[in-house]
Design goal:
3-stranded antiparallel sheet; alpha+beta; 2 domains; about 20% helix
């Protein structure tokens, strides 16, 4: 899965301030049966911390725009996982994203702010098949090979005995 977060935080202060804030982005993908393929509660996709000191030119507005891109992979090998992707038709995968401001501290008692997040993702599902013959198939192949060997031996014997004597 290739993802992109576009996080924008705009803050306006009317007096001097020291500002510290952190953001974390989480991406989640749910399978066709609504089971989670990526668990956003366990692993943040990105973490970013910023600090700013504002000392003059009030009111002052600061805007931070951050774009984060990356890729995540998940390998499904269990039967119940793979069963989600069987059958005809299209596969529906729900994508969820969140970029919360995880910590925010300002020494100013006066100010206001707006935070917005846009996120998108492209999910590619690829299959790797490894064919393992069933026991029945192995027995049939063995019988076929044995039958061919017997047929060739019988054919040689018939040729030897059917040659005219001179």
């Amino acid at each position: 899965m290739d993802y992109e977060f576009d996080s924008k935080i705009q803050l306006t202060f009317v007096n001097a301030s020291t500002l510290a804030m952190g953001v974390q982005g989480y991406m989640a993908v749910a399978g066709p049966n609504n089971s989670t393929i990526f668990n956003p509660a366990l692993t943040p996709t990105f973490v970013n911390v910023q600090s700013k000191t504002l000392t003059s030119n009030f009111p002052q507005t600061i805007t931070t725009t951050q774009v984060f891109t990356g890729a995540l992979q998940s390998h499904l090998t269990g039967g119940s996982d793979l069963a989600m992707f069987t059958g005809p038709g299209t596969i529906g995968l729900r994508i969820g994203a969140s970029v919360p401001v995880t910590n925010f501290h300002s020494s100013s008692s006066q100010g206001m702010g707006v935070a917005s997040t846009m996120a998108g993702a492209v999910v590619t599902v690829s299959y790797t098949f490894s064919a393992v013959p069933e026991p029945t198939s192995l027995v049939l192949m063995g019988l076929t090979g044995g039958g061919l060997v017997c047929l060739l031996r019988t054919n040689r014997r018939l040729r030897r005995h059917s040659q005219p004597l001179s």
